[in-house]
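[job 4417] fold queue: 2 targets
>>> target A
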Amino acid sequence: MAGRVGKAASALAVLAFCWYMRLIARVALELFYPATHVPILKPLPKVPPGTLSQGLAWREPFEYEASVYVSPLDSFLEAEFFNASALVWSLEPQSLAQRRPHFDMHLQVSIPEPMRTTNATSLYAFLFVQKAGQSTPHPNLRDPRLAYARAELVQARPRRVDRKHSLVDGKDAADQETSEPHGDHSAGPWVPHGKTRLSWEIVLEDNVFFGWRMPLDIAPYVRVGPSDPPHTFPYIPLAWENPLAARLKHWTPLTTHTSVSEKTPLETVTFEVEASLRGVGLGWFRLCNHVHHGLQELLSSRSLISYTEADVDSLKEMVYEVNPTMLLITIVAMALHMLFEFLAYKEDVSFWSSKSKADLHGISRSSVLMGVASSWIRLLYMWDQRRDTNVVVLFGTGASALVEGWRLTKVLSLADLALWRRRAPKREPSAESEQKGQTQPEPTEDARLRERVQREVDQQTGWYMARVCVPLLVAYAAFSLVYQKHESHMSWLINVSLVTVYSLEFIGMWPQLLINHKLKTVEMLPLTAFLYRFLVTFIDDLYALVIPMPLLERIGTLRDDVVFVVLCYQWLKFPRRKSGQGKTKSETRSTTESPADAEAPMSKPTSSKKTD
C-alpha cells in the first residue's frame, strides 16, 4: 500500500511539472510572439482577407538620431521647455537596419539653484528619438513619428540606516548611514535623492498586428502615426525608461541634513548618472512591464504577503540583470529543483520509514546529528537574512529541517549520545525475558561488523570535533564580534553558529563516506534520494550564480558538490550485491546485507567456517 502511495505521489509531481512547463511555454510565446500562431499552445483566430494591419512606422531605409535633455519641467509641451532645459547627450544618425543597438552615456546633471534651497524634487530627463536631420537646433516636437520617454531624476526618499553595528564599541546603529540597498529604512527624515542609473529602451522590431489585436499591456505606450500607405495605421516605436533598472542602491542622498532650506541648502551641486539607450524585443519590453506591475502589487496593501522594498529590489535584480534566455533557463531550473527536491524528500521518507532500528547499522549517527543541527541553524540564519534570501530557497530550507528532525528520531536515541565519549556496553538479556522464554536473535557477522565500524567512526568524529573544531569556533566567534558588524547579539550568535555548522557539517559528511569505504558498500543509504539530491545540487549551483542568497549559503552550495562526487564514486566502485549470491570469505567482513536479505528471516550464523 505504501509503495502505491509513493508511486502515485511521484506521478502527480511529474504531471504537475509537465503542466507547469506547458504554462511557462504558453506565457513565453504570448510575451515574445503575440502575433504568431502556434497550434495547441497558442492558437490564434484566422485573419479575414482585407483586415487592416498595424506595423512599425519607421520603414527601411531609415536613419534616426537621439538627444537627452534635463529639465525641471515635467512636460516638454511647455512653451519654455527648451529655454529651461539643458542638452546633456546627443547621438549621431544611426541606421534602422541595426534593430538591437546599445549606447552608453555618462551624464553630468546640475541641480538648478531654486532646488538647492527648497524641498522641490522636480527634475526630469527627456529622451527624444526621431528621423535624422530634424534635431537642429532642437528636436522637432511636431514630428508625428517622434519617439520619446521621460525619467524622474530626483525623488524624496527616507534616509537609509544600517541596522548592523559593532557589538563591542556599542555605537548606535541609528548614527550610521549606509548606501547599501538592504539597510533598514528609517521612518524619516525624507530627503532628496538623486537617481544614478537610467536605462532607456526602444522597440525597433517590426511586429505586425491585424485588426488592432495588440496586447492590452502595451496600450499605454502605443502611439499611432500617419497612414503611409493609406489605411495601415502604423505605430511609433515603443520607448520607455525601464523601471526595473534603478534599484535602491542607485538612489543617493543629495544632502546630509534632515531638511532643505536657505540655511541648510543641498550640499550636492551636480551628480553623475550612468545611462544607456538600447534596442530590445517586444517580449522583453512586455516581460519587464508585467514584472513591474506585479511588484507594485506586492508593495500595495492588497498583497496577501507583506513585502518590503528590499524584497522587491531583490526580485528586480533577479529579472533585470540576466538576459531573457538565462531567465528562462533559471525558471525551468527552479521548476526542476522543486520537482527533484520533492522526489528526494519522498524517497528519503519512504526509505527511513521502512527501516527499523536493527536495519540501521552502518548509518553514521554523528552525520545524522550534524545534519539536524546544521539544517535548523541554517534555517534560523536564512530567516535572519530573509531580506537577502529568495522565498523558494527559504521554503526549501524549512522543509529540509523538518525531514532531518524526523530522521533523527529514527536512528538516534538518548543512549546513543554517549557514543562520542565511550563505547556503549553490550546489553544483556533481562531475567524477566529469560523466564518468559523470549530471547533476542543473535546478530549476524555482517551486523556486528557494521555496528563496530559505525561506533569507531563516530567516536573518531567526536574526538576531532572536540579538539579541532571547538577552538576554531571560539577563534572565529571572537574575530566576528570584534571586527564584523551585526544587527544584534542574537544575529551574531546565529551567524557564528552557521559558520561553525557549515564547517562541522563538512566534517560530518565524511563519517558516512568513511563507513562506506571500510564496508565496501553503499547499501545502507537511500541511493534514489541521493540521486535526486545530486541533481538538485547542480541546480543549486545555478541558483548560487543567479538567485539572491547570503554568501555563506553560496559557499555551502558549492561545498556539497565535493561530497556528492565522492559518493557517486563509491556508488560506481562498490556494486550492489544481489540476493541469492554466495559470499566469499572476504565479503563476509567487507560487505553488508542487501535490502532483500534484510527483509528475509535471519538464519542462524554458522561458526564452523569462520576464518580470520
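>>> target B
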Amino acid sequence: MVGFLIEEGQQLNKWEGHVDWRNRPAMRGDHGGMLAASFVLVVEILENLAFLANASNLVLYLSKFMHYSPSSSANIVTNFMGTAFLLALLGGLLADAFFTTYRLYLTSAAIEFMGLLILTVQAHIPSLKPPTCALASTEIPCQKANGQKAAMLFTGLYLVALGVGGIKGSLPPHGAEQFDETTPQGRKQRSSFFNYYVFCLSCGALIAVTFVVWIEDNKGWQWGFGVATATILTSIPVFLLGSPIYRTKIPAGSPITTMFKVLAAAIYNNFKSKNPKNAVMGMETIPSSYNTETSEEGESSTKVKVPRQTLTEDLKFLNEAIKGKPVSPMLQCTAKQVEEAKVVLRKIPIFMCTIMLNCCLAQLSTFSVQQAATMNTQIGSLKVPPASLPVFPVIFMMILAPTYSHFIIPFARKVTKSEMGITHLQRIGTGLVLSIIAMAVAALVEIKRKKVAVESGLVNSADSLPITFLWIALQYLFLGSADLFTLAGMMEFFFTEAPTSMRSLATSLSWASLAMGYYFSSVLISVVNNITSTFRHTPWLSGSNLNHYHLERFYWLMCILSSLNFFHYLFWANRYKYKTASSAD
C-alpha cells in the first residue's frame, strides 16, 4: 500500500508529456520554472548579438567591399534576413515532430558558427574579396564579387540563415515550455517571459549596433565577423549550463500531417455529401469518431473515459471530416484534431496582416542606413557609424519592455479585471498603428534631407549633407516601438493559442511574418521600379546615388498600404475568438 502511494505521488509530480535532457521524466519542482527560462534569455542576448552584429551593417559591407549597388545590396540583405526568418518554420516543425527544442538549438548554433567562420575567413584574406575599388581611378574599375568569391559569400550567409532559422524556431518555445500553464501564476510568468525575451533580444542588438559596428568600421570586418563567431560559440556552453533543470516537450509527430488529414477528409466528405448517390449512405452512417474520443481500451476492464471534445460552429465545413465512414483509415479523424485544425486556420488571417508591418521594419536595415550614411553623423566630437542608428529604438525597447511588464500590464489587469489585461490582438494592433506613423515620418524626413541636398548643392556629391542623422532616428523610434508591441504579442498569441503538439511551429509564424515582410519589401522595390520606369526615364529606386532616388514617394506608398492593412486587420481581429481554458490541451 505504501509503495502504491509513493508511486502515485511520483506520477503526480511528473510533467506530463515532458522529459529532461537525458530523456527521463521531468519532475515538478526539479525541472522548469523561471530559473530554467533565465538561461534561455541569456542565450538569446548572445545569439541575437551574433546575428545582428553583421546583419545591421551588412548592406554597407556589400556595397563598399563586395561592390554591389545600393539597391542590389538592399535586396541581398532583405533576402538573407527573409530566408533566415522563414527557415524558423522548418526549425519549429522539426522541434515539434522529430527533435526536441533542446537538441535543435545545439545543432542550429553549430551550423550558424560554421557560416560565420566562412565569412570571417573571407573578410580576413584579401584574395577572397574583389580588388579595392578606387572611384577616381580608371585603372582599377569597380568589380563586384562574382564566381568563387560570390559563392563563398553566399555559402557563409545562408549557412548563417539556416542556423538562425533553427534557433528562432526552437529557442523561444523552449523557454516558454518551462512554465506551468495550468496555473494563473505560470501563465503570468510565461507572458513576462515573452516580454523579457524581446528585452534580451534588444540587449544583444544594442551591443551589436554599437560595439561590434564600431569594430567593423574602425578595425575591419574580419574582427566584426570574428566577434560574432566567438559569441555564437560561447552561447552553446551557456545553454548547456541549464541542462539539469530544463524540461522539454516530447515530439509528437508532424502536426502538418494531421492538418492535411483533416482538410482531405473534410473535402472528401463535403464532395460525397453533395453527390446524390452518396446522400442516403452518408445520412445512415454513424459518425463514430465524433461520438468517442476514448482510446480503444475504453471498453476494457479499466473503463477509463476521456472527455469528449465538442465541435464548434465556426469553419463548419471542417466538421464534415468526422462524419461518415472514412474512405481510408488514414483519413479517420477525431473531434480534437478537427478543432486543432480550426485553431490554426483562424490564426492565418492575423498572421497575414502582420506581414506589411515587417515590410516596414525591413527598411531599418536597408534604405534607412543608406540615408544616414549621406548625413552628418557627428554628435559633438563623436562620429557615429550609420549602422548604429538602431541604437535609438533598441534603447527605447529596453526601457519599454520592463515598463510594460511591471507597470502597464498590472494596471491594465486591475482596470479590465482580466488575467491578460491587454489582449494579444490589441498589442499587435498597436504595433500596426505605430508602423503607419513611422512611414509617414520617414517620408517627411526624406523630403527634408533631399531639400538640404539641393540647397547646399551636394546632390551629386559624396560629401556628407549639413543635416544631422538624428532626423532618421525618429522613424527608428516609431518602428522600434511597433516591433516591441507586435513581436512579443505575436509570439505569445501564436504559442498560447496553438495546440500543444505544434507550439514550436506556431511560434515560428512570428519569424515567418518577418521573413515575408523582407521578401515583400524586395518584391515591392522591384515592382515599383518596373512600373515607374515605364512612365519615367529612370525608376524611383535605382542608381548609385541615393539623392536621385524618390524614396519619399516609396515611403508614402508604404504608409498607404500599411493603413489599408490595418483596416484589414481590424476585420479579422474583431471576429477572432480566443481559445478558452476548457478547450486547452
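[job 4417] complete. Note on B: The longest helix spans residues 184-218.
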